[in-house]
Specification:
There is one protein chain. By secondary structure, this protein is of the alpha+beta class. The chain has one domain: Aminopeptidase (3-Layer(aba) Sandwich). 33% of the residues lie in helices and 22% in strands. It has helices at 22-35, 42-59, 113-128, 142-147, and strands at 12-16, 62-69, 74-84, 95-104, 133-135. α1 (22-35) packs across α2 (42-59). The protein is globular and about 45 Å long. The model is unreliable at 1-7 (pLDDT under 50).
Length: 166
Protein backbone atom coordinates (compact mmCIF):
# COMPACT_ATOMS: atom_id res chain seq x y z
CA UNK A 1 0.00 0.00 0.00
CA UNK A 2 1.42 3.38 -0.95
CA UNK A 3 2.07 5.79 1.87
CA UNK A 4 0.21 9.09 1.71
CA UNK A 5 2.04 12.33 2.44
CA UNK A 6 2.77 12.93 6.11
CA UNK A 7 1.10 15.68 8.06
CA UNK A 8 0.15 18.69 6.01
CA UNK A 9 -0.50 21.59 8.37
CA UNK A 10 -4.07 21.98 7.10
CA UNK A 11 -4.85 18.28 7.69
CA UNK A 12 -3.19 17.32 10.99
CA UNK A 13 -1.70 18.90 14.04
CA UNK A 14 0.14 17.41 17.01
CA UNK A 15 -0.57 18.66 20.50
CA UNK A 16 0.30 17.57 24.03
CA UNK A 17 -2.39 15.42 25.64
CA UNK A 18 -4.05 16.53 28.85
CA UNK A 19 -6.16 14.76 31.43
CA UNK A 20 -9.19 15.91 29.44
CA UNK A 21 -8.01 13.42 26.79
CA UNK A 22 -8.34 10.39 29.10
CA UNK A 23 -11.12 8.88 26.94
CA UNK A 24 -9.08 8.88 23.75
CA UNK A 25 -5.86 7.84 25.52
CA UNK A 26 -7.63 4.85 27.09
CA UNK A 27 -9.36 3.96 23.81
CA UNK A 28 -6.04 4.03 21.93
CA UNK A 29 -4.26 1.93 24.57
CA UNK A 30 -6.95 -0.75 24.51
CA UNK A 31 -7.11 -0.77 20.69
CA UNK A 32 -3.31 -1.06 20.50
CA UNK A 33 -3.35 -4.24 22.58
CA UNK A 34 -6.34 -5.66 20.70
CA UNK A 35 -4.62 -5.01 17.35
CA UNK A 36 -1.62 -6.98 18.64
CA UNK A 37 -3.90 -9.90 19.52
CA UNK A 38 -3.41 -9.47 23.28
CA UNK A 39 -6.48 -10.49 25.32
CA UNK A 40 -7.80 -7.40 27.14
CA UNK A 41 -10.28 -6.84 29.95
CA UNK A 42 -11.58 -3.65 28.31
CA UNK A 43 -13.43 -2.31 31.36
CA UNK A 44 -10.69 -3.22 33.83
CA UNK A 45 -7.90 -1.81 31.68
CA UNK A 46 -9.84 1.35 30.93
CA UNK A 47 -10.58 2.00 34.61
CA UNK A 48 -7.03 1.17 35.71
CA UNK A 49 -5.41 3.27 33.00
CA UNK A 50 -7.69 6.25 33.70
CA UNK A 51 -6.78 6.09 37.40
CA UNK A 52 -3.10 5.91 36.47
CA UNK A 53 -3.48 8.86 34.06
CA UNK A 54 -5.15 10.96 36.78
CA UNK A 55 -1.96 10.71 38.82
CA UNK A 56 0.80 10.44 36.21
CA UNK A 57 -0.21 12.87 33.46
CA UNK A 58 -0.62 16.00 35.64
CA UNK A 59 2.58 15.10 37.52
CA UNK A 60 4.53 14.94 34.24
CA UNK A 61 5.56 11.32 34.84
CA UNK A 62 3.67 10.35 31.69
CA UNK A 63 3.69 12.68 28.70
CA UNK A 64 1.60 12.06 25.63
CA UNK A 65 0.83 13.68 22.31
CA UNK A 66 -2.19 13.38 20.05
CA UNK A 67 -2.51 13.92 16.32
CA UNK A 68 -5.73 15.68 15.40
CA UNK A 69 -7.52 16.14 12.11
CA UNK A 70 -8.55 19.62 10.97
CA UNK A 71 -11.96 19.05 12.60
CA UNK A 72 -10.35 18.17 15.98
CA UNK A 73 -10.68 14.39 15.93
CA UNK A 74 -7.79 12.62 17.71
CA UNK A 75 -6.67 9.86 15.33
CA UNK A 76 -3.17 8.95 16.52
CA UNK A 77 -0.94 9.41 19.50
CA UNK A 78 1.75 8.10 21.74
CA UNK A 79 3.48 8.78 25.00
CA UNK A 80 6.52 8.23 27.15
CA UNK A 81 7.80 8.00 30.66
CA UNK A 82 11.26 9.29 31.55
CA UNK A 83 13.04 6.89 33.89
CA UNK A 84 16.23 7.26 35.87
CA UNK A 85 18.70 4.92 34.14
CA UNK A 86 22.23 3.96 35.13
CA UNK A 87 24.99 4.80 32.66
CA UNK A 88 26.00 1.76 30.65
CA UNK A 89 27.43 0.59 27.33
CA UNK A 90 24.61 2.12 25.24
CA UNK A 91 24.59 5.51 26.93
CA UNK A 92 26.55 7.25 29.66
CA UNK A 93 23.54 9.43 30.43
CA UNK A 94 21.35 8.98 33.50
CA UNK A 95 17.84 8.92 32.02
CA UNK A 96 15.96 6.98 29.39
CA UNK A 97 12.63 7.73 27.74
CA UNK A 98 10.44 4.67 27.42
CA UNK A 99 7.84 5.06 24.65
CA UNK A 100 4.52 3.28 24.65
CA UNK A 101 0.90 3.65 23.56
CA UNK A 102 1.84 4.61 20.00
CA UNK A 103 -1.35 4.05 18.06
CA UNK A 104 -3.02 5.20 14.83
CA UNK A 105 -6.68 4.55 14.14
CA UNK A 106 -7.03 2.06 11.24
CA UNK A 107 -8.58 4.44 8.70
CA UNK A 108 -5.69 6.90 9.21
CA UNK A 109 -2.80 4.45 8.86
CA UNK A 110 -0.14 4.68 6.16
CA UNK A 111 -0.23 8.50 6.25
CA UNK A 112 2.92 9.02 8.32
CA UNK A 113 1.07 9.80 11.55
CA UNK A 114 2.94 7.25 13.66
CA UNK A 115 6.20 8.70 12.37
CA UNK A 116 4.90 12.19 13.17
CA UNK A 117 4.21 11.11 16.76
CA UNK A 118 7.68 9.58 17.06
CA UNK A 119 9.38 12.65 15.56
CA UNK A 120 7.53 14.78 18.12
CA UNK A 121 8.71 12.49 20.91
CA UNK A 122 12.30 12.56 19.62
CA UNK A 123 12.24 16.35 19.43
CA UNK A 124 10.89 16.64 22.97
CA UNK A 125 13.59 14.23 24.21
CA UNK A 126 16.34 16.23 22.51
CA UNK A 127 14.99 19.45 24.05
CA UNK A 128 14.98 17.79 27.49
CA UNK A 129 18.51 16.37 27.10
CA UNK A 130 17.33 12.77 27.07
CA UNK A 131 19.84 10.83 25.01
CA UNK A 132 18.28 7.38 24.77
CA UNK A 133 14.76 6.24 23.80
CA UNK A 134 13.51 2.68 24.18
CA UNK A 135 10.30 0.92 23.19
CA UNK A 136 8.74 -2.45 22.57
CA UNK A 137 7.63 -2.62 18.94
CA UNK A 138 4.59 -4.47 17.71
CA UNK A 139 4.99 -6.63 14.62
CA UNK A 140 3.17 -3.98 12.57
CA UNK A 141 5.20 -1.09 14.00
CA UNK A 142 8.60 -2.75 13.64
CA UNK A 143 9.30 -1.58 10.04
CA UNK A 144 8.63 2.06 10.94
CA UNK A 145 10.84 1.94 14.02
CA UNK A 146 13.65 0.22 12.12
CA UNK A 147 13.38 2.83 9.33
CA UNK A 148 13.73 5.52 12.00
CA UNK A 149 16.96 3.95 13.29
CA UNK A 150 15.75 1.78 16.17
CA UNK A 151 17.65 -1.46 16.63
CA UNK A 152 16.55 -4.60 18.46
CA UNK A 153 18.38 -5.29 21.68
CA UNK A 154 20.25 -8.57 22.03
CA UNK A 155 18.71 -8.80 25.51
CA UNK A 156 14.92 -8.95 25.16
CA UNK A 157 12.87 -7.67 28.05
CA UNK A 158 11.49 -10.39 30.28
CA UNK A 159 8.80 -10.26 32.96
CA UNK A 160 8.16 -12.05 36.24
CA UNK A 161 4.92 -11.61 38.17
CA UNK A 162 5.75 -11.13 41.87
CA UNK A 163 2.08 -10.67 42.69
CA UNK A 164 -0.69 -12.87 41.39
CA UNK A 165 -2.56 -11.17 38.55
CA UNK A 166 0.34 -8.90 37.65
Amino acid sequence: MEREPASRADEYRVRPATIADADVLARHRIAMFEDMGVPVDRDGLSAGFRTWLQAQLPAGVYRAWLVETADGRSVAGGGLTVLPWPPGPRSIHDRIAFVYNVYTEPEFRRRGLGRLVMETIHSWCRDEGIALVALNASKDGLPMYEAMGYAASPSPMMFFACVEGA
